[in-house]
Amino acid sequence: MSHARTMARRCAIQALYQWQLTGQNVDEIYQQFLVERNMAKIDTEMFKELLTGITKELEKLDEKIQPHLDRDIAEVDPVERAVLRLGAYELMYKPEVPYRVVINESLEAVKTFGAEQGHRFVNGVLDKLAQEIRELEVKRNAR
């Protein structure tokens, strides 16, 4: 796990949070991050891929997440929603990233930005998603 990739995920979560609340254009948010933040230690390519990929695939991601929620995804805390979408995106579209890394990175991010017990909720949802999306990988690691 590289620090630059961890920071790319955290920037993506912050940018998604902003996008969810403002509806601002994703490219504008990306440019704003490049201008207003020190991105020297951040994998900006990964940041852009996550931000654009998640917003582009939003419907598919939400369809995967929704069955594992006890409420509508729109009612989920905005930070937790951004983290769930990022985790779901990586589980679905980044098979080279081990599912445990996806879950751990998501949990650390929600502990940093989210509500006090948010990590428990996110962990439960992403764990179920991983079993569904990465079934073989999860079974291999269970041995």
Question: Would you write up a description of this structure?
Answer:
- It is a single chain.
- The chain has one domain: N-utilizing Substance Protein B Homolog, Chain A (Orthogonal Bundle).
- The chain is built from 8 helices and no strands.
- The mean pLDDT is 94.
- The chain is globular, with a radius of gyration of 14 Å.
- By secondary structure, the protein is mainly α.
- The longest helix has 20 residues, at 3-22.
- It starts with a helix and ends with a helix.
- Helices cover 75% and strands 0% of the residues.
Which CATH C-level class is it?
Mainly Alpha
Task: Please give the number of β-strands.
Answer: 0
Q: First CA to last CA: what distance?
A: 23 Å
Strand percent estimate = under 5%
Largest sheet: none
**Count of discrete domains:** 1
Order of helices and strands: HHHHHHHH
**Rg computed from alpha carbons, rounded to a whole number of angstroms:** 14 Å
* Cα shape: globular
Q: How many individual helices? A: 8
Which structural traits does this protein have?
143 residues, mainly alpha, single chain, N-utilizing Substance Protein B Homolog, Chain A, 8 helices, globular
